[in-house]
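Aim 2 progress update. The chain analyzed this quarter is reproduced below.
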Amino acid sequence: MSKTFKAVALCLVTSFLFGLSFIFIKMCVTEISLFTMLAWRNIIALVAMTVCILLGVLKVNLKGKDIKPLLLLSLFQPIFYYILEALGVKLTTASESGIIIACIPIMTMIFSIVFLKDKPTKLQVLFMILTVSGAVIVAGIGGLQTSSNILGYFILILAVCSDAAYSITSQKLKDFNSAEKTYAMCISGTVVFTACALVENGFKGTLTEFVTLPFTNMGFLACVMYLAIGCNIIAFLCSNYAISVIGATRRAAFAAVSTVITVVAGVFYLHEPFSLIQGIATAMILIGATGVNFAVRKDPGESENAGECEKLESNN
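Predicted structure tokens:
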């Protein structure tokens, strides 16, 4: 299996896991505060990943390395992105937030041009527009309700920029393998979100409930286990590896596929309707994501990043 094919397959795995995550998040935050969910999500992910490292399943060796770039990566994702996305969604309508978040692939392409001098082909630009257009249609399919909240729009745009910055930073960090990047993200997320949850629950007088929640609420435990293991560990491991092989722009094109997974999951799990327009938009997303990944001048995963990929394969 070529590195490029493997990276594309892992992008699909990432999209599938993140696509289903919205259902589990919805199940959690209906009764549990956002910071409580994020804290336990990252705590469980950190514990699980530490066990994997101790057992030799994952290789992490940060000795003698400058970890400041990893801190920057962690600031963009998950810290800034999760907080900004939550605030933006709270201040705007679901359709508005979905449409703005759907622009992540375009923003990633722009960031790649500016910061990595990675100029896409004309066909890639056209396919990316097709992908984002499909995601925007899916996000606004229920009718565009406007909040006219300028602050909410601005915060969501910052969230989009944060995710794009994460992809660019991950691509540039060639001295770290995917496990090291993901482990740093788990540690940073645990520290920040646990601190926020402790402050929040301290003010509410619910510290005991926060500490015992996963042991007293099996439904919550099941949800955060999926989010921690499936998303924080497996999905981000796949994402960081894929970025190192095919680059930020081509990986970002698959972000819209998560929208397709979310829609399909909603149809089968939540019994939501599926219209002809949604079907057309889904086809646009899939065709666009495929086109972005094949309308390239050369395969960056097997040239400039080949050395890192070999290191990743040996370590992971």
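Residues 299-316 have pLDDT under 50 and may be disordered. The two ends are 16 Å apart (CA to CA). These observations will guide the mutagenesis experiments scheduled for the next reporting period.
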